[in-house]
């Protein structure tokens, strides 16, 4: 039994290596994992037989025989990712290599009497539409709040009105599948580690701007979650204790200044004729109108974004000075207007950074609404590559499904 366990762990390690580093030769795999070439040959043959690994091109040699490189088969498995918002759900079906196979939007009321049951209904409606394809490895759920343990999935999310909500437990009971639940920004960081900038950086920050403001800290290749899973609440850093009230109950939080509601309040305070419609139900829609005004050269709109960028830049500099990342990745709905944020952001960031860190790269990525849900799917898809075992028993079940040891 011990030998079998060791084989399963090594198979998983091979998949993890190919998933995070990319195609490698058998000898490179043996060297990286510190196992014998004969073991690698045997296990990769098995993985190829299961359709999880394939032979690719020959790697050029400096005189010896060219080495055959091996790569991960994207169709070896897939996961469903779910992003929970205050009024709807976004669901995506994602392959192991990150390719999105389908996306869906469902209405959702987190304040409903049986919100977890409604969430399960929406997931089941999508799963019923996925009738064939690679093995379903599990379901990942991203929420705008704190999660005690992604493998347990108890959620505290004030913006949803959830306190100690047993989301993971309820979904596992209904779906009979592995379920991982995580803060939505941490989920984006997992996706970056698997498919984005994190493949070449082990220490980086993910910042999100949009309805709110969030951060995820990746240190030595792992998302830092803190003692209770609440690390990264960057939006609730106090900028000015006399500032506007925040949804968390405090005053002067960063999010209260530069989240969507803060941007709209700043625009209206500057001019009664500001290009922002009053009473708009969707703050992101109103911010989009503000962005269009900025594109058109409206001075109020341009000033609002520049000032928000300056506030965000100063706060980001403090975070960079504390955690010393290699790169900062900016994501979220707000990136659509990034050129107008950047006017204030870059200047404030560089001015406040500690000497020696002022050349840090800030990389802004393209965005659409499915990006949040792709991050949630990455919670599941990254599990086979997670040597730390952050997903606990749910991670073991995901790995078993990928290896093919469960029905």
Automatic annotation (TrEMBL):
**Pfam families with a match to the protein in the record:** MarR, ROK
Record-linked PROSITE patterns: ROK
State the CDD domains in the record. Answer: HTH_ARSR (cd00090)
The protein's matches in Gene3D superfamilies, at most eight in alphabetical order, are given as: 3.30.420.40, Winged helix-like DNA-binding domain superfamily/Winged helix DNA-binding domain
Q: Which domain of life is it from?
A: Bacteria
- Domain HTH marR-type, residue spans: 10-54
The UniProt family comment states: Belongs to the ROK (NagC/XylR) family.
User: Would you tell me the protein name for this molecule?
Assistant: ROK family transcriptional regulator
Protein source organism: Nonomuraea ferruginea
């Amino acid at each position: 039994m011990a030998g079998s366990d060791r084989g399963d762990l090594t198979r998983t390690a091979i998949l993890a290596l190919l998933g995070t580093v990319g195609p490698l030769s058998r000898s490179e795999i043996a060297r990286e994992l510190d196992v014998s070439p004969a073991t690698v040959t045997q296990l990769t043959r098995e993985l190829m037989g299961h359709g999880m690994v394939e032979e690719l091109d020959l790697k050029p040699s400096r005189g010896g025989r060219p080495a055959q490189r091996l790569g991960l088969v994207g169709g070896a498995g897939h996961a469903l990712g779910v992003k929970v918002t205050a009024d709807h759900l976004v669901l995506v079906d994602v392959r192991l290599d990150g390719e999105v196979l389908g996306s869906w939007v469902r209405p959702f009321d987190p304040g409903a009497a049986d919100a977890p049951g409604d969430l399960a209904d929406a997931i089941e409606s999508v799963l019923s539409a996925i009738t064939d394809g690679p093995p379903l490895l599990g379901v990942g759920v991203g929420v705008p709040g704190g999660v005690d343990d992604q493998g347990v999935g108890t959620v505290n999310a004030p913006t949803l009105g959830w306190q100690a909500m047993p989301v993971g437990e309820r979904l596992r009971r209904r779906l009979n599948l592995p379920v991982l639940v995580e803060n939505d920004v941490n989920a984006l960081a997992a996706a970056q580690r698997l498919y984005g900038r994190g493949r070449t950086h082990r220490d980086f920050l993910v910042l999100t701007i949009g309805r709110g403001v969030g951060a995820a800290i990746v240190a030595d290749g792992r998302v830092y979650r803190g003692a209770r899973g609440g690390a990264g609440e960057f939006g609730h850093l106090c900028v000015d204790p006399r500032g506007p009230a925040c949804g968390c109950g405090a005053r002067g939080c960063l999010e209260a200044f530069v989240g969507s509601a803060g941007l709209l309040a700043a625009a209206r305070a500057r001019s009664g004729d500001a290009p922002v419609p009053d009473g708009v139900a969707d703050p992101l829609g109103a911010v989009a109108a503000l962005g269009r005004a900025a594109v058109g050269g409206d001075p109020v709109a341009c000033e609002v974004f520049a000032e928000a960028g300056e506030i965000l830049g100063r706060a980001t500099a403090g975070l960079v000075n504390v955690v010393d990342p290699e790169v900062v990745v900016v994501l979220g709905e707000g990136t659509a207007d990034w050129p107008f944020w950047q006017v204030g952001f870059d200047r404030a960031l560089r001015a406040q950074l500690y000497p020696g860190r002022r050349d840090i790269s800030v990389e802004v990525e393209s965005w659409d609404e499915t990006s949040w849900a792709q991050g949630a799917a990455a919670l599941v898809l990254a599990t086979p590559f997670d040597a730390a075992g952050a997903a606990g028993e749910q991670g073991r079940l995901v790995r078993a499904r990928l290896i093919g040891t469960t029905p």
